[in-house]
Amino acid sequence: MQPIHFLTPLSQQPFIVVAYVVFLGVLLFLEIRKASKRFLWVRLFLVCLVAFALLLLGLQPAYQQEKERVPIALLTPNFDKNQLAQLKSKYENLQIFNHHTLRSQDTTHQHQKVKVAHPTQLLPYESTTDTLFILGNGLAIHECQNLEKFNIHLLLNETITGITDIEYPTHISVNSPISISGQYSNYSEQVHHLSLEQSGINDKKTIALPPQKQTNFTFTYTPPQAGNFVYHLIVKDSLQKILQKEPLAIEVKKSDLLKVLLLQNAPNFEQKYLKNWLASEKHKVYIRNSISKEKYQYDFLNTKRFNWSNLTSTFLEQIDLLLVDVSSFQKLSSTEKKRLSNAIQEGLSILFFAKNIDELNALKSQKKLLKDFRFQRHKKDQTDIRLNATKTTLNTIDASIRNRSNITPILQDIYGQNLVAFDRQGLGKVGVSTIKETYPIILQGKQQTHTQLWTKILQDFAQESIQQNQWNSPQTPLIFPNEPTALQLYTNEVIPLPEVYRQDSLVGDFPLAQDLYLPEKWSGLYWFDTVGWYELSTQENLDEQPFYVFAPTDWQALRLTQQIEQFQDWHKKQKAQSIATVPSFKSVLIPLYWWYLLLLVSLGLLWLVGKLEE
Q1: Burial 132-152 (b: 16+ CB within 10 A, else e)
Q2: What is the mean pLDDT of residues 14-38?
Q3: Is 415 helix (H, G, I), strand (E, B) or coil?
Q4: CA pair distance 540, 193, nearest whole angstrom
Q5: Residue 569's closest CA among 443, 418, 414?
Q6: What SS3 string covers 50-67?
Q7: Less Cβ around it within 10 Å: N or C end of the chain?
Q8: pLDDT at 202 over 50
Q9: Over 371-389, what HEC string results?
Q10: What is the pLDDT of residues 507-564, one digit of tens each?
Q11: In whole angstroms, what is the distance from residue 436 CA to residue 355 CA?
């Protein structure tokens, strides 16, 4: 029970009180003026009761009562009607809202009034609902920002049939194998069949996809010529009816080849898989492994063999990137270290690997190469990263690289800790990697993830300064029309002015913002308006880089899966927060018949007292 208040408007209450005081005064005066003083105090008391009853009838006293908390069900596309029926049977006062994206035929339910709502329309119910149930495919992340204070329970769709995961390169070199891998979820009762189709492909490989099961698949293909190609993953049923046809847009181009030098204390599995990958990418690889004191083992990939032992200035001038572990670097002679320092000033890039944080700190204290780096010790030996929205676990050493103004991150984990970063020194770069090994990614069947990881590292450590524009988007490979697409440009232009072309015709432009710590990096947003190939360039540099925009109907199963996963991640964070329930109250009028009863009883007793006086 809350404190008593009055429903009569506050502006009218003073007049009612004044009238009450005047009326009470008149009644008391009349009773006192009567000749008979018998039962005077009783009559005065009854007169007060009469006036008090009239006062309460005028003020209409009430009390506050907490409103009943009503559960809400928000229906999104592909909701389970059985789950909804169970909720309706459990909660008689369940309020049902349909998400505004539902088809009209889904918005009627027998014996139940259903409201069509955008999530923001639920805000007025925040204080009156006990639970918000969300059924179906869930909500997009941008729709969740107004629902943080709701007590949410998810009853999401877990039976999406189609390609729910895909991984493939959007740019590949001629005669380099394309690896297309992913996952197909088949919740039907039939066997489906998946194939890769494109004119010129002779491989007729078909993968059977059993019912009621998730199946991983991989296709490989080596493009024989350069160009922009759209391949297709096609799913058919047992009657050869096409169930799903998803495009794969790939630019096949000539690759920029690097000369990479690997110096290591001893051969290991990481070096084995790394050198094989570098060779498969057609890079020239020079390897020197230390066998014993002043005795080395040499290897040459994609280049002619020749005799060399020391790191001469002439040899270093030919190298684009040096990959070296700290122990091997420490064994170099002082002359070789000095030559390396000079080569870095002239444009050589070097990336250090270490067994632990102590090795890095020891090197930092001895040489000025790592003078600007700061390291943070960790107990964990694994972390997760995301490459093209795919989560991957990496083995790491007991350290991460601290953020500093002159340290540029290349690779971060999902927690924002720097795993690989570099410092510019002269025309070259000095970098550190806290990744212990990457070959387990290949053993897990994620060859393309391994390729993406090392491609990203090599691109940022290439010796040549940026001569041409390099465009990319964190949303690739899946870009859709009429949605904001984040674009990044790496260039040496002072103020780049981007241009968007389609079929050799200029269709738009957009502004770019310069990165604070990486001057050659510029970022912006653009809305592509139709499906197909686009080319990006600048007014100063006409070299074009292609991007493919998919149709809104493409990759529906994958987009729904990603939406559900992102929504579930948001819900976990929201659930971890302490949500304080703020009660909502309503005013309940004290029944007026009590005051009428008080008035009648008081008047009756007053009449009775008068009779007794006679």
Answers
A1: bbbbbbbbeeebbeebeebbb
A2: 77
A3: coil
A4: 49
A5: 414
A6: HHHHHHHHHHCEEEEEEC
A7: C
A8: no
A9: CCCCEEECCCCEEEEEECC
A10: 999 999 998 888 888 999 999 999 999 999 898 887 788 999 999 999 989 988 888 8
A11: 7
Token pair of 514, please? 């310069």
Find, among 6, 108, 133, 114, the residue nearest to 57 by Cα: 6
Mean of pLDDT over the chain: 82
The span from the CA of 524 to the CA of 515, in Å, is: 11
- pLDDT for residue 200 is more than 60: no
State how far the Cα of 37 lies from the Cα of 210, in Å rounded to an integer.
104
CA 323 – CA 287 distance, rounded (Å):
10
Return the CA Rg of the chain. Answer: 38
Nearest to 135 by CA among 153, 160, 111: 153
Amino acid at 503: Q
As a whole number of angstroms, the distance between CA 309 and CA 286 comes to 12
Q: Which pTM does this prediction carry? A: 0.53
Total residues found in the chain within this entry: 614
Of 250, 242, 255, 184, whose CA–CA distance to 223 is shortest? 250
Q: Which of 472, 482, 394, 476 is nearest to 434 (CA)?
A: 394
CB 233 within 8 A of CB 248: yes
**Strand pairing class (114-117; 95-99):** parallel
Mean pLDDT for 387-412 is 84
Kindly provide the b/e burial profile for residues 107-126, where b requires at least 16 CB atoms within 10 angstroms of the residue's own CB: eeeeeeebeebebeebeebb
Number of Cβ within 10 Å of residue 572's Cβ equals 10
Q: For strand 513-514 and strand 162-167, is the pairing parallel, antiparallel, or unpaired?
A: unpaired
- State the number of CA atoms in the 13 A half-sphere of 222 facing the CB: 6
Average pLDDT over residues 277-300: 85
Residue 532 C-alpha from the chain's centroid: 26
Judged against a pLDDT cut of 70, whether residue 334 lies above it is answered with yes
